[in-house]
Specification:
eight-stranded parallel beta barrel, alpha/beta, 13 helices
């Protein structure tokens, strides 16, 4: 019932207009989204950099319906890469393949994502290809492997692995064989039991298991979590194995646990803040809640924290 409710909210144009104009909607968007335009996220990144943290920028949007939208989305990322270099920001970019037209024309998505990775490589920057729901898992990983294997792209494109997926350990082994950088997260989509762990204890246990594999690999990875138990497990393991603090990074969402972000940075651990922006914040926000209604409690707990 909750999933259907949030999906209906995401599709309602009248509720979207109301949310975008309401004080609560504006509070949510200001807290968890940098703004609507590229300049907004660039300014937010500058402020985050000043506090000693690095950034990953994400233009909100997914499942575009035509090639023009996909090319427009890609052009915005090209602009971000150029502005990051021009302003000397410590930032990279994250994107979704459905935002690059994967549902419209897979060849188009490969073409424009390839151009973006080549652009990032020329600038010595980095493109993170985000993971979406399970229907896209294999295609996403295949494309990351394909792009990373091209001359000049090594180290400039990475993948995301979700610890609630039962296949994730096998996927990580293949990524590490190619020395591809990984962002490890728990996962936010609703997936069936046959392909994904359902219990939090199982997801957490797999996160710790995969974290240990990643940290011992010698490749620079990101641990995306706000869970103190997962963070402490990573710190304890790094100290025990004598893995230096600059060999990996923690990653958290913009506006979530800002106190913990600063605390980890002051302790010498690397911290990257994932900053979303764009006009699609309302449908994006509602779809995330629809995928996993428990996310609503997570957001509410952090809204006033």
């Amino acid at each position: 019932m909750l999933r259907a409710f949030f999906i209906s909210l995401s599709e309602s144009k009248s509720l979207r207009r109301l949310a975008e104009r309401s004080s609560l909607g504006q509070k949510l968007s200001r807290r968890f989204v940098a703004g609507l335009e590229a300049e907004d996220v660039l300014q937010a990144a500058k402020a985050v950099n000043r506090s000693g943290l690095t950034v990953s920028m994400d233009n909100l949007g997914e499942n575009v319906t035509n090639a023009e939208e996909a090319r427009h989305s890609a052009q915005l990322y090209h602009q971000l890469l150029d502005e990051i270099a021009a302003r000397r920001l410590d930032a990279n970019v994250s994107l979704k393949l459905t935002h690059m037209g994967l549902d419209v024309d897979p060849k188009l998505a490969v073409e424009i994502t390839s151009d973006l990775v080549a652009h990032a490589a020329r600038l010595k920057n980095f493109v993170r290809v985000d993971m979406e729901g399970s229907p896209y898992t294999q295609r996403t990983l295949d494309l990351v492997h394909q792009l990373h294997s091209r001359n000049g792209n090594q180290g400039y494109v990475g993948a995301v692995i979700q610890s609630y997926m039962r296949r994730s350990e096998a996927d990580i082994e293949k990524l590490l064989a190619a020395r591809i950088r990984v962002r490890l997260c728990k996962g936010a989509y609703k997936e069936p039991e046959e392909i994904a762990f359902q219990k939090k204890s199982e997801v957490d246990a797999n996160y710790v298991r995969l974290m240990k594999i990643l940290l011992k690999s010698g490749v620079y990875h990101g641990l995306a979590t706000h869970d103190p138990a997962m963070i402490n497990a990573a710190i304890d393991f790094a100290k025990t194995e004598k893995i230096p603090p600059d060999a990996f990074e923690f990653q958290m969402l913009y506006g979530i646990r800002r106190d913990l972000q600063q605390q980890l940075a002051k302790q010498g651990w690397r911290m990257r803040v994932y900053i979303p922006f764009g006009h699609e914040w309302y449908p994006y926000f509602m779809r995330r809640l629809a995928e996993r209604p428990a996310n609503a409690l997570f957001v509410l707990r952090n809204l006033f924290r």
